[in-house]
Amino acid sequence: MKLAGSMNRFAEIIVDISHEKVDRPFEYIVPDALSEEVRVGSQVEIPFGKGNKKIKGFVLNLKDEASFDPAKLKSIASVVPHSTSATGDMIALAYFIKTHYGSTMNQALKTVLPVKKSAAAVKETYVLQEASDEELEKAIDRYSKDKRSVAKLRLLKELRREKVLPADIVKDKLNISPSTISSLEKEGLIRKDVKENLRDVFDIKEKQNYTIQLNEGQQRIADDIWTRYENGDKRPSLIRGVTGSGKTEIYIELIDRVVKEGKQAVVLIPEIALTYQTVLRFYKKFGNRISVINSRLTNAQKHDQLEKARLGQVDIIIGPRSALFSPFPNLGIIIIDEEHEGTYKNENVPRYHSREVAEKRAAMSGGFLVLGSATPSVESYYKAEKGDYQLYDLDLRASGAKLPEVEVVDLREELTAGNRSIISRRLDELIVDRLNKQEQIILFINRRGYSSFVSCRSCGTALKCPHCDVSLKYHKNGKLMCHYCGYETPMVKTCPECGSKYIGTFGTGTQKVEEEINRLYPQAKTLRMDFDTTREKDGHEKILSAFADHQVDILIGTQMIVKGHDFANVTLVGILAADMSLYSGDYLAAERTFQLLTQAAGRAGRGKKEGNVVIQTYSPDNYSIRFGSKQDYKGFYDFEMAYRKMLGYPPVMNMLGILFASENEVHLSRQCNTISQVIDFKIQAKAKADPSKTPVQKIGPSEAPIARINDKYRKMIYLKSPVYQDLIDIKDSVENYMDENPDKNLDIIFDFSMMGSKEV
Ligand code: ADP
Ligand code: ZN
Ligand code: ZN
Q: Which of 45, 208, 656, 739 has its CA 20 to 30 A from that of 541?
């Protein structure tokens, strides 16, 4: 045992965080007099260089032993008073990320600190209501009687609702021509303005009255979360509320209270759900105190938004994952909407999970964390069951709309009955019915381009990427593509193995489905939404807008279409091959399938008309499909947990995957075996130290699920333990071993929440 006085005697300090080489901090002694005050993230004064000039630095790390001769080290001079600055907080957070997920301090700092660069702000054009409300009403009346003025009418009605609209929305979503706009401008009904962002536009008009009275269920939840916060209950809250139950209104209410206390808020939303409509609701309530981050911003723009947070120019930042690192001085609340989303897991090193980092950040700042989802991750729900999170339920839609009726169709029976189409007889019947009624349809395919791989019917050869261990996908432009490294090659005419000309694509990619639908229902207008059709700027918004405006009858797409928008006129959702996501081969497959089915079904019947959902599947008895079709979250959860308990998967056990990659296959094997021994040694040492504990379990080394990417071979070692710290200790011992035995020809990646979101 160490003496209390001997702990954390040394500090690693960086003097300039904008410097590239933060990996090489300086070591200082923590004098006894300061040992209480000095923390990771503290700003301190230190004597520096030959002249011992006093300069300021941040504490990156504290440790018991020095790496150099302590006799040659200098001491920290003082702690800067009130030095728990936003920057210090971010450094402490980076330190947490580094130790928790495995990365260098440099990588962790780059994750939490915004890239330092400034550039001219990009300006956007807005269309605003210029006339008084009364004049606008009159104009709307006038144009309602004139058949040739439908475009003008459309814009004026939209402006009556929103007061201000981005010009590109007016053009693309409302289909308003420049001449219509200038004509209305001449009449003095509207005007155009160029501003840096929406909030500047709201500066001109007064903040709008945003008054939605919370219903009883919403009010009860908001009040309880707030009371717990005031009473110092630090546990995160998890709101499980069906789609459309009014979770967003609860967030807005809580943020309002936090801001009134002089504190700030971060709202995380998956990029895909970060639509104009969602953001506008926040703008209406909070006006110019908001900033939004999205993937379309340049690094410089992003940096500017975060700078506004640091300087107190905004109180609320909305955005995907990285908004979590908004350097607010006094963060009061973090909200994570759609908390089950895979995108909250960072797929690059450090492979952190936003939920865990948010929990840490909230704890550091004394704020509180609120998670919301219609289908919470099994992990979060488990925490709620254990009492680590407080659970709240919202079972009804705020609008009073009913949840849709769901039917399951067994595709095996379709085949027996002689129906070889991708559309079952029941779904066909409903599609025809809705097309006749002028109602809209969403057809959902579980995975982009799944099994659009090319194989030979004579010899069975499947065409593979020459650099990766995956099948090439056929694209309609006549090319074969690798989705992992970008390799492209023209489609072949004959089998490269046997020369047979019976080579082609099988299964149901989105393109194939669209072709088939156009053949079956030539009278219907269709649109496809997938990775390929949304690559261009605003691709999402354009497709969704065309659909919302009913320019299209059937929207065909991948998981992208199940999020975000409300389409009041959609009364039928068809899920074409519900089982596909069951075969992705990792332990999250069932959970992901259940979430997708529930969210997709939630798209039907959002308006006044009731909706139908048809789930087509080859495995109607699979529990994720059974519970998904009944929208029975708890039923699914109980079943899934029993399964994970039996197999020792998270959240019952903690899991660490270590991925090794190298261009040299023999070298890879040799190194994996050596490191595997290092791990065995550590496991044995742990078992010896405390024989009563469940030992860490090791699986592998074995081939990674994808054994080669970009010409690098890949192997994995999996570790399981009921104790998270045991896995961190093993990660540390591997890191130490690699520090002592550097290897340029080997990449190592640690992954604490396995597999995450990546579409495989
Ligand atoms: P969620 O975030 O759970 O999907 P929203 O907060 O987006 O739900 O609410 C769904 C719809 O119901 C929105 O159009 C919202 O304006 C409306 N709504 C929510 N709460 C209320 C309420 N208390 N009174 C009236 N309308 C509400
Ligand atoms: Zn062949
Ligand atoms: Zn490839």
A: 208
